[in-house]
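for the recovery benchmark. tokens below, seq after
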């Protein structure tokens, strides 16, 4: 009997896994009419570091005029920030904040954020929330919408609020308090 090439075996396995995941989602949607809405409140911190040996965010693009702009207009950063229970970097990791932020304000530092919160532990392990909105970073309190989610947070909507806990521009470090109110099924 001839052996199947490894890539063919892996491809078949990937197709089988995708079909199983699709069936799970189809079943979930089939039961949706009987599901009750839940409200989940979460509190954690994200650590955005743009300098040092292991930055969690970095500039990936900028406009020709960005260096002259007091608001860094036109700069785009990619991030994969740790999310922790407490404000200390050594606090328990609960997930990762992955996405991008772009300086979109001409008159004030205001970011357009496309941010995915990926949970790596606890009841929400493997689930995610999708956030898309404006983050005027100099305001003491910022609010952005939850536009979706996966896993436990399928079809999520709600609000995420940010409050700067610590910021040092010369060190390239920001610690942001995050509060989530997510409505989901």
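predicted aa per position
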């Amino acid at each position: 009997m001839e052996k199947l090439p490894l890539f063919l075996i892996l491809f078949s396995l990937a197709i089988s896994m995708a079909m199983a995941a699709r069936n799970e989602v189809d079943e979930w949607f089939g039961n949706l009419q009987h599901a009750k809405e839940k409200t989940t409140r979460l509190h954690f911190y994200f650590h955005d570091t743009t300098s040092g040996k292991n930055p969690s965010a970095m500039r990936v693009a900028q406009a020709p005029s960005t260096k002259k702009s007091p608001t860094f207009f036109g700069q785009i950063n990619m991030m994969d920030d740790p999310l922790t229970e407490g404000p200390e970097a050594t606090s328990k990791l609960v997930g990762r904040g992955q996405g991008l932020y772009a300086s979109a304000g001409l008159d004030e530092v205001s970011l357009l954020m496309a941010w995915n919160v990926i949970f790596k532990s606890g009841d929400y392990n493997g689930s995610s929330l999708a956030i898309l909105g404006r983050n005027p970073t100099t305001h003491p309190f910022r609010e952005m919408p939850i536009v979706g989610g996966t896993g436990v947070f399928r079809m999520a909507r709600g609000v995420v609020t940010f409050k700067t806990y610590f910021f040092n521009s010369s060190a390239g470090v920001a610690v942001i308090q995050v509060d989530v109110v997510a409505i989901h099924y």
